[in-house]
Amino acid sequence: MAEISAQKMVKELRESTGAGIMDCKKALEEANGDMSAAVDILREKGLGKAAKKADRLASEGLVDVLVSSDNKIATISEVNSETDFVAKNENFINLVKNTTSHIQVNSIQTIEQLNTSTINGVVFEDYFKTEIAKTGENLVVRRFETIEVGANGVVTGYIHSNSRVGVIIAAACDSEATASKAKDFLRNVCMHAAAMKPQVISYKDFDREFLDKETTALKAELEKENEELRRLGKHEHKIPEYGSRAQITDEIIAGVKAKLEDELKAQGKPEKIWDKIIPGQIERFYADNTQIDQRLTLLGQFFVMDDKKTIEQAVADEAAKIGGKIEIVKYVRFEVGEGLEKKQEDFAAEVAAQMA
């Protein structure tokens, strides 16, 4: 029937049920163009169940990480479910792993590309709707990302034991030999990032407006803590002028150096020893005035496996040990439900909503 194949009818049925395009078309053909009957056909096949569930927030689920055997490609994905119970189901776990593999093997970059791709001989969107119908819950491929490196590059990843947090990190090296030797160390950095939640690689990645707001908040936080420290008679925090190395210009450092020289001169310190004192004082200035970097940047955080070094220092030391160069160039961290608010609904209200 020509009318049934019209895009308008298929589109309307698809929007009202959430079923796949081909399923909608077949249902309309079977129902001889009767839209209401087509809806019933889809529901009887379990293909309309997803639409009934689509307004329910999927904020549980799993994160998956897949790294190629040569450490040249890594994919991270987050697939959400409504409940932790379904997230622990073996079928759901397999669905997530199959989805991640499908994304990597087919070089898929967007949700739109994913939905229109073909998996096991069917359109992915239809395949996924069928899986939704099996679980009885709304499932969502929320996000994914693939990192691919070229010559002298290495990418690796880490998935936490609860499969709720995953990280992938890529580095550029000076040779394939360095890249191969660096992969285990970089996996440890991934483990660090999973636990410590850095937002960006370095201070160079910060937005200036964000930094201004964070610096104001940092100062207020320290001032508040100082109130309690004063009450207890303890040593107070020094309130920094800045929060990140991104805010500290060469002119600022020149001013700090000049001030330190004036102080040393006033103290009667011989000028010949200033060069031994000033570098340490400037490093202290950086430490005091880069607290946002220490909290939120990967390179600025202290390494959980050696808390006397920042990640930046640990990378440099590892490169020196290998005898090459390592630069972290890409970092992605996913945590299940990050940024989502789980919808709270009591059982009676949920039943009433489904019966309406």
Mean residue pLDDT: 89
Proportion of helical residues:
40-55%
Unreliable stretches: 50-55, 343-356
Structural class, please? Answer: alpha+beta
Q: How many angstroms does the end-to-end distance come to?
A: 34 Å
* Residues in β-strands, percent: 15-25%
The SSE order reads HHHHEEHHHEEHEEEHHHHHEEHEH
Number of helical segments? 15
Major sheet: arrangement of strands = 1-2-5
How can the largest sheet be summarized?
Answer: 3 strands, antiparallel
Using DSSP, what is the number of strands? Answer: 10
- What is the gyration radius calculated from CA atoms? 28 Å
Outline: elongated
Give keywords:
single chain, 356 residues, alpha+beta, three-stranded antiparallel sheet, 15 helices, 50% helix, disordered C terminus
Can you give me a brief rundown of this structure?
By secondary structure, this protein is of the alpha+beta class. Helix content is 50%, strand content 18%.
